[in-house]
Amino acid sequence: MIDSRSTRRFAALAFMLATLLPDPLRLEAAMGVGAKPLTGAEILFDGTRKMLDEKWTYWMGPRFASTLPIKWKIVEDPVDSGTVMMTDDPAAAGGKYGAADIVTKKEFRDFRLHVEFLIMKPGGNSGVYLQNRYEIQVLDGDKTKHGMGAIINETESPYDAYLGTGKWNAYDVVFRAARFQNGKRVEKALVTVYFNGKKVHVNHPIHKVWGGANSGLDGGREGGEGITDVPGGLKLQAEGHDVRYRNIWIKPLDLREANTDLAD
Questions:
Q1: Which residues are CB-neighbours of 238 under 8 A, at least 6 positions away?
Q2: What are phi and psi of 12, to 5 degrees?
């Protein structure tokens, strides 16, 4: 029979072990809609215009057509209290990705990312770009390799994890940047993605930047396969649609081993 003293000791030990575990290994506690930032994470967007202007700028690629300050609007959260950002920049009307995309001023290599998005209308389109290179698609209604939740053109869409228009959805990402020796890529970028708390992509090697030079860094190099050994910011895509973002945070990591599946 286990007495109350033993139970208390066990509970105290369990609590101590849980708090001592490195943050990347405690993904379950900080995933899905409403997840709180991990210890050591940087908040990239808190719903305010001040933070949008302080931490973000336009990506001024070959198709850039907007002007600073950022024209993305701060609007009321359509579901909960507070304010969020809206992607509907006039310069991107008609699906002109790259014309008014925004990117963090800070650049990253390996990291743990959380981002929440809400698509207001059917067919709404945006995208989350890791290192301003690799896109995780945000596209309502598309279940193909170009569709919702796909590592674009490389994995199938995990569409069943999507909650639909008018609802908040969340991506939780562990990303390891490509590795290089003497300027040559010897290991491809790796990513594990959770979509609304469901693990949908595990240790997926990302082969290239898709979409050409207008898509992101290195998109115009060797058909998107000429990846360079430089970090990149987190980018959000504008395509002239009403897509909202909130609760964005990131924690830099140093993943020496080629493994992003850190929750198991």
A1: 72, 87, 88, 89, 91, 92, 97, 99, 100, 101, 102, 126
A2: -65, -40
With tokens 């000429």, the residue in question is: 226
Q: State both tokens at 28.
A: 């379950």
Say what percent of the chain tops pLDDT 90.
87
Going along the chain from its start, the domains and CATH numbers come out as 25-253 (2.60.120.560)
3 state DSSP class of 143: coil
Question: Do 28 and 20 contact (CB within 8 A), yes or no?
Answer: no
Residue in the structure block whose two tokens are 């995933």: 31
Burial 104-135 (b: 16+ CB within 10 A, else e): beeebbbbbbbbbbbbeeeebbbbbbbbbbbb
Tell me phi and psi for residue 126, to 5 degrees.
-155, -155
Q: Name the band, by pLDDT with cuts 50, 70 and 90, for residue 262.
A: confident
